[in-house]
Amino acid sequence: MDYVFDFLLICHLLALAVAAATTVALPVVMRRIAATAENRPSLGAIAGQLSLNSRIGLGVLVVTGVLMIWVRYGGVDGLNVWFTVKMALVVLMILVLIATAVARGRINPQLSGWITRLTLVGIVISAVLAFN
Ligand code: HEM
Predict the structure, then answer these.
(1) Is 50 near ligand 1, meaning CB less than 6 Å away?
(2) Are 126 and 85 in contact (CB under 8 A)?
(3) What pTM was estimated for this model as a whole?
(4) What is the 37 CA–ligand 1 centroid distance (Å)?
(5) Given 7, 33, 102, 129, which is the most exposed site by the fewest CB atoms within 10 A?
(6) CB-based burial of residue 128 (10 Å sphere; 0-12 exposed, 13-18 middle, 19+ buried)?
(7) Sign (positive or negative) of CA dihedral 97, 103, 105, 108
(8) Does residue 1 register a pLDDT over 70?
(9) Residues 82-102 pLDDT 10s
(10) Is the CB of 132 within 6 Å of ligand 1?
(11) Which long-range contacts (CB under 8 A, 24 or more apart) does 56-59 make?
């Protein structure tokens, strides 16, 4: 069963790499879109691809995370408060993604970008404190 857990953790960390790379790259592309009109179509396509990547990354993080809890811990009983903090931040990140998608352009991208990045840092810190 350990090989299964190891495989899930590898997928979890690869998905984290995709999500983290997107939270750095997307704001850069969005700033360029705001600044230059002529490159808007091509940069818009790149921004769309990056948003899709981040949504897939987050989806893989949640699915592999739930499976790891099931495979190794058999449930959330006995997990410490840092796990609760991590889950609360994951929910916050999902809510920000949904709000950004629903409110199309009405939420300042800089604000949502910073909330997402800071939340990601908080999730990584609480993950390390929860499981080590
Ligand atoms: C944005 C979402 C998430 C991020 C950035 C994230 C990040 C991480 C990181 C960095 C680790 C490695 C920690 C370490 O081994 O020290 C980890 C491990 C883990 N995460 Fe997540 N995670 C996310 C979502 C989730 C979710 C939703 C769950 C469960 C419902 C979950 C459950 C786990 C488990 C079970 C481990 C491995 C614990 C162990 O090594 O025994 N994660 N996560």
Answers:
(1) no
(2) yes
(3) 0.92
(4) 40
(5) 102
(6) exposed
(7) negative
(8) no
(9) 999 999 999 999 999 999 889
(10) yes
(11) 56/15, 56/18, 57/15, 57/16, 57/18, 57/19, 57/22, 58/15, 58/19, 58/93, 58/94, 58/97
Q: How far is the CA of 121 from the centre of ligand 1 (A)?
A: 12
The mean predicted confidence, pLDDT, of the chain is: 93
Instruction: Give the single-character DSSP code of 107.
Output: S
Beta carbon of 123 within 6 Å of any ligand 1 atom: yes
Residue located via tokens 């808007």: 40
Q: Residue 37 gets which letter from DSSP?
A: S
Domain boundaries along the sequence of the chain: 2-131
Contacts for 129 with CB less than 8 Å, ≥ 6 apart: 80, 82
Confirm or reject: Cβ of 82 under 6 Å from ligand 1: no
